[in-house]
Amino acid sequence: MSQADTSRRRVTRDDVARFAGVSSAVVSYVLSGSPKPVAEATRQRVLDAVQVLGYRPNQTARALSLGTSEMIGL
User: Dmax over Cα atoms in the chain, in whole Å?
Assistant: First the structure.
């Protein structure tokens, strides 16, 4: 996948996983700071993929998953 492909749509966790050569679960472990063991070289590959692809977590999906947006309305 080239950067031109990802500029037209939002980069997903699966895109990062493919780029880094790992599963989407490993990407999740690295990004969430999970206590699951991930080798340092693998962690670095995931973080490099996040930076190269410009991955940003989807806050709406996270809020739906957690059942809260952690936002305060005024």
Answer: 45
